[in-house]
Design a protein that fits this description.
alpha/beta; 5-stranded parallel sheet; 491 residues; homodimer
Chain lengths: 491, 491
């Protein structure tokens, strides 16, 4: 993989100076076209060995293009907010929005490669990290991102020379640190690991460009040209994202049975309700105050039929909690900042810190529920969402989150009764809109969407809890009990 | 101030239970009206002595209203991102947007009061903190926020009893910490300081409500009633913010002389430019790498006539910097999340961390420039902005920021020449729009706005640098030299 990057490519000064003005103009032009189109973000990932000119090239790209519309991120030590959250959090928050160019100096590749090379993780860990990256990049591609990944390479001999050279001059000496030499000592292992990772992640969606880093002019021109070509091709290409998947979901009428067989009428009498409510609220309150929970977090997802009582159930949960520790995220239409990013971005920004509780009132499942049924997302987009969501939840879980997902189900008649009641009660009037009545007409389509959702995202690590909700008492107690059990098993 | 809160107000169980259902319904109703109107945010600040039921009341408010549209913030230890920034940063990022209710449990009052009571700061420090708070609250009021500040009070005797009582039961024992007793030991001093601070900050814009905390039912009802009344009054009031200031700015034709007398034609020959550029870029590059700068930050503000060369000047600055350390914030139309907040919110979110450089391409001065000239802000709003901006900059400076503000000025003829050139150059075409031509017609109005801006915001701690910019070489070198001097003086 690195052989051709060790041939010692060089560009003469004359050739460089002849090309740069044209290249610069074309890059600027492409940059403004990207901004004007506002259709997709551009992400350039700059990785590679130390001393191969990564920093200088990033500098040059900022010089050639309009730096006001580029955001360069160097990922060094994470802040405390970042350190508490899943490793991908800091990258998610740095992703460029549509129309902008982001340059990642260091990226999600840095830690896995370094940790493997220094034997802090083993091969299966590395494979998992690689899988996670492939997954992320495929999703970003599907969400419209143009991603260009550069790997700056130097042969062992050239790297040694380069570091020595930098150390000689007082102007550049500061750039060579002990860490650089420590890395150099691991050159062979780093090379082996990098090559493996690059091979595994050089995909159709986000191929690697290996750049011979030995000559400044060559590597700058190469990087500039590749970036230009990538932006230009994408700008000129018609928008033809696949809108249907290879194979449709066969209408599996049988999987809605699960939902239909739910005995939505299960109930609790008032007295039992009072006792159980107190019992589980007390238990919940103790569990989240436990020492063990301080290093964990709790994520609750509430979905359900309209008027199924999500709000009331949430209130019975928060009734047991200290308002300083929880945050409720009501999920409605995205803001324009959210719309300019990949779908999951708006949920990543609410990732809980240690000891925090985040309650989603509707959630990322919107894509496979309302967006599917109302044709707001095309089939390819909501079909890939199942897989993306599973991966997303896995990352949060691996970071210590305890996740409970609730689907609250009521019967059609009960829904009608509640709609009417809401229309008649002054302080509930906000809870019923024309949209609710429209949704009600699509009962069967929603039923199918829910069944598919449960089929495809109820995993052993993140199961759905179906809640029979015609009786609010029963539903609330079931929700509380489920949360208590999940917490108890975890802490 | 606290006398009437020591009378031992009580509410009987019967009275409480009779009122709560009505109060709750009315609160919910008001909450939804606030959300539907989307005109203003509501902020309830909950402060006071330990053991006075602050936490329980916050809990109750979340229970009575719809917690999905409330965001409660407890301000305990700041995160590393917050600790590096000015103290107000963490409060700014937690402010509720229009239409939402925020509850601050702990607030900008906590630290000044505690630090004074424990003699960690002295009276002048406290006065400064109080001034800063008054300033902030006045601004938030002017920006439309409804602010209700509650102080929960207990007499010394009652507080002692309360703490002992909590310690008795195993269910509540965890709530009493060593810190609570340490605070109790300072009761008298805390009372004295609090009383002083409350008196100084009980303003028309944000009055304090002192609540007798000795009886649970009384304090809950009182808080609920006050909050309800505040929301209701505000909802019912016509939108009659004053749109003009008491006294107009007299057309001070003389202050534009400063700008007009500027010799915009000052120039540098190409050779000198090359030398000076290298010299100051080298110096800048060293200065920001200095050890001392690691605990400081650099904030650059670029404003100027259209086509005055802001972008080119910024590029010469960033040419000397490591792209990982700086961030350019191009200021254009606000996003909808920004529009839902007070004006300065969109700049606070870019506050630099330690060792960081933030470059604003246009800035918070937009309010007194384009918004003033184009009538996008009314007179009262842009008039108060001068003062708000000075205060804002002072906070950043006090936190270690080094601030340079540049106004780049070119002559009218030069502007015309540049506009025409831009229209003819392909990769500069984006730089010239119909709006630029329209602005050009308002030359005199902009001149006046700039003169007033410099008059009112060029303070000794944050002076403006007027840059003669007909000759780009001269302008760029002046900018670089100014930054180097400011850094040299500071680090």
């Amino acid at each position: 993989m690195f052989e051709s990057a060790e041939l010692g490519h060089r560009t003469s000064k004359a050739a460089y100076e002849a090309e740069v003005p044209r290249l610069r103009e074309a890059l600027l032009d492409a940059q403004y076209d990207v901004a004007a189109a506002g259709r997709f973000p551009v992400l350039a990932i700059i990785s590679g060995v130390e001393g191969a000119g990564k920093g200088e090239t990033v500098q040059r790209l900022n010089e050639w293009m309009d730096p006001r519309h580029i955001r360069t991120h160097g990922f060094i030590a994470p802040s405390s907010e970042e350190a508490e959250r899943p490793p991908m959090y800091r990258f998610w928050r740095a992703l460029p929005p549509r129309g902008r160019i982001g340059i990642f100096f260091g990226s999600w590749y840095t830690m896995p490669i370094l940790e493997r090379a220094f034997n802090r993780i083993d091969d299966p860990d590395l494979d998992r990290a690689v899988n996670e990256i492939r997954h992320l990049e495929r999703m970003l591609y599907n969400e419209g991102m143009l991603m260009v990944k550069f790997w700056f390479h130097l042969s062992k001999e050239t790297e040694r020379e380069r570091l020595r050279e930098l150390e000689k001059s007082p102007r550049t000496r500061w750039r060579v640190t002990k860490r650089d030499w420590a890395l150099f000592k691991r050159y062979d292992k780093l090379r082996e690991v990098s090559e493996h990772v690059l091979r595994e992640t050089s995909t159709f969606e986000a191929p690697w460009i290996v750049v011979d880093g030995s000559d400044r002019r060559y590597r700058e021109l190469t990087t500039g040209r590749v970036l230009l070509e990538a932006m230009r091709r994408r700008l000129d290409a018609p928008e033809t994202a696949p809108s249907v998947t290879a194979a449709p979901i066969a209408p599996q009428m049988d999987n809605v049975v699960l939902l239909r067989n739910l005995d939505v009428d299960r109930s609790l009498d008032k007295k039992t309700y009072g006792e159980q409510l107190e019992k589980y609220q007390g238990r919940l309150s103790l569990l989240v105050r436990s020492r063990a929970f301080r290093r964990r977090s709790l994520v609750l997802v509430f979905e359900g039929t309209d008027a199924a009582g999500k709000g009331g159930a949430i209130r019975r949960v928060t009734g047991a909690l200290d308002p300083r520790n929880y945050r409720i995220v009501p999920v409605a239409a995205p803001s324009d900042e959210e719309r300019a990013q990949a779908y999951l971005w708006r949920f990543w920004r609410h990732a809980p810190g240690q000891g925090e509780i985040v309650i989603f009132d509707r959630s990322w499942y919107g894509r496979v529920l309302v967006e599917r049924v109302e044709d707001l997302a095309n089939e390819a987009d909501w079909m890939r969402a199942y897989d993306e969501i599973n991966e997303f939840e896995e990352q949060w879980l691996r970071n210590g989150a305890i996740l409970c997902k609730f689907w609250l189900q009521i019967g059609r008649d009960e829904q009608l009764r509640r709609f009417k009641h809401r229309e008649q009660t002054r302080f509930k009037r906000f809870k019923i809109t024309q949209e609710d009545w429209r949704n009600r007409k699509k009962w069967a389509a929603y039923e199918q969407a829910v069944a598919d959702m449960v089929d495809r995202t109820s995993t052993e690590i993140a199961p759905w809890t179906l809640v029979e909700a015609n009786d609010k008492h029963f539903a609330r107690v079931k929700v509380l009990r489920t949360i208590c059990r999940a917490l108890k098993n975890a802490v």
